[in-house]
Amino acid sequence: MSDTSFVRTEMLEEKAPPASTVGLVGWARENLFSSVLNSVVTLLSFAFIAYVLVGLLPWMFQSSWTSKSLTECRELFNATYGTSHGHACWGVVNDRWLQLLYGFYPDHLYWRVNLTLVLTFAALAPILFSEKTPKQFLYLTMAYPFLMPWLLWGGTIWAPVVAALGFVVGYFVFVTVSKVQSGLVTMIATVIAVLVWWLVLAGPVADTLSGILSLSIESVESRKFGGFMLALLLGVVAIGVSLPIGILLALGRLSDLLIVKAICVGFIEFIRGVPLITLLFVASLLLNVFMPPGTNFDIILRVMIMMTLFSAAYMAETIRGGLAALPKGQYEGADSLGLNYWQAQRLIIMPQALKISIPGIVSNFIGIFKDTTLVSIIGLLDVIGLSQAIRADTAWNGIYWELFAFIALLFFVVCFSMSRYSMYLERKLQTGHKR
Amino acid sequence: MTTLTDPPKESFRLSMLIYDTRYRSATIQVIALLFFMLAAAWLVNNTINNLNSLGKEITFGFFSEPAGYDINQRLLDYQNRDSHLRAAFIGLLNTLVVAVLGCITATVLGVFIGVLRLSKNWIVARIMTVYVEMFRNVPVLLWIIVAMAILTEALPSPRDFRGENPEASMAVFDTVAVTNRGVYIPEALFSRSLGDIHVLGDSSLRFDISLDFMAIMAVLIAGLFFSRKIKQSADKIQEATGIRPSTIWKRLGVVFIPLIAVLVALGFHLGYPELKGFNFQGGTHMRNSLLALWLALSLYTAAFIAEIVRGGILAISHGQTEAAGALGLRSGRIMSLVVLPQALRVIIPPMISNYLNLTKNSSLAIAVGYMDITGTMGGITMNQTGRELECVVLLMAVYLVISLSISGAMNVYNSRVKLVER
Fold first, then answer.
1. Closest Cα to residue B295, out of B171, B155, B170?
2. CA of B389 to nearest chain A CA: how many angstroms apart?
């Protein structure tokens, strides 16, 4: 008997995997050249990319940033490259970018627009990145709806202050009356007090206050609003206001109350059945006809109202989808805890339904933001309207692609970051277990 | 002895309207209805007051007045002395034309791109992602204007086709002329034509029905019907015996032989566009406005449809594909018998809303001067007659009818392909 063992007692060293399956080569073999067909397609794709880049890169980079007119650009290109084709004349962007961004807003007041933009982000911060923002920012969020119009349109500070005081009045009435009366009476008293304050008292009080101490900044007319700022303004208002209205409409559509349901369904289906442009026609031509004689309110305000209603109908359908996706057990669970309708909605249903509908809500946001460009058709000078105005200038007559590229870039940056944010939010709110 | 007495009859108190759940919903509804009616009455009252003070009254009589403007891209005959109603009718047809064309191309492109986005080939998937993000994140109005600018600025003018050594030449075997004034494609002509039927005489809604077209459609439909019959009998044989008879030649023959026969009988030939004078003559002229709108709407909507298709395919669990594979199905049959029928269930509802969006977005035709219903009734007719209220209300009604009928038709289709559960 020999004591030679034929069984290996320790593992061999692992060998390195074949060079063709790891690293760049392995990756390329797997993802680009896995079969003959795939290889052909890959080569064709590379050829396509090369073709596009060969056309695009010289156009983008062999360009002029300083020319003051298209003729000057063409002369420069003819002198330098021998042809005026295939070279971008970025001079138009350099020359007019302020106008494209701010419209005809007075240039010594640009800081107000910039400040509003900063305030917008600051006011959104507690909503967008709730756990990373100090709680104090919430006060700014509450003040924002009053600060924003004041900063943009200017005028006396007392108008927004008095409007905001309406909520303070409502709060005090609520607190005092609820000590002596039941819930419903308090509710009615509060609503009446606030309405009386806004409709009757607010005007005289604001006048008196501005008589005592006139704290006002230079006011700017609506027709000077334009450019990308207008798109952002309309977008922010339509997005911000349409979400709560959309939630209410969705709840109304799902409610058992027949008449409320019929009104909500009618409204939603009507708005979703007509193009936005017809609603903008209503804003520009008809809204004044529907109002009491003599009212003549601002075109931007009218457009805001119609865009908000439009967006709200789409929002309602998205949220309805979220509500429908929620298991019935959630509703029954809320009922069995003894919560009433609004408590159940606020504590159980809405947090989950909104979470489910985030992708839809954000794509609605993106949609309504892109649709703000339609105001150029009813004659407001947003970016697209301005690009046509710039082309009408003799210096830039015949310039297309540079302006389009600039406008497309502006919208792409905003919309793309919105869609990325919604992905981040989905991941953040993912409380279930990933499989 | 005990007696059971009825509980004391509750007397009705006013507060029960609010605190008693039996009555509360009725109270809320009545209040809501009152508010709604008050608001509606207020709006109508304001409108009447305002219109009175302007000296306008609501009439639709202006529709029978002569329109006085031209519509260059149209399906039916139209002169500028025709009525506003005729102009609106032509506009409506133009809206439908661009909507149908757009929906078809957007679906084809969208499905193609959506499938390719899931490709295992990294570079193809990337290119498609770039396409989708590029089109989804830029406003459709900008795409429409860009498409119009490309067509008018970057294409050769008809002058470039002239001379011994022309700068531009016609595409597809010299049959299609792509110029900056539009695209000229061959038109179908019949030398032994059966003629047309004029419908509705001289009214504003008159139109012609081409008998040639009807004959071809009839033969085609009959062919497809018989082809279906052949398939059904083949299915029956397969179920009974397990052997599937080859039907492809029979089915092709039953469709194409009568079709070719009728085309020959009618003397079918193509009329090609030719350069005459300063412009092309003959063929069908598709103007830039139509092409730009069609192109931009299809490319834009295709990006959305691609995402829907991708989502639909991803929603089918991998187990389905594997189970089908285990049953011995080939990959093509797995797709057509297992994955697609289930994916359709996810795909169709959002697809409907995208078709609706495309139709509604076609109202942006006004930006490139394509005379659709918005361009005629909501554009020139409204500006000429000053009847804003009537025109806008009618315009909304027309779009509402279009939208509701599209969604109605697609919902019927959806309920047919829907998987029936329990």
1. B155
2. 7
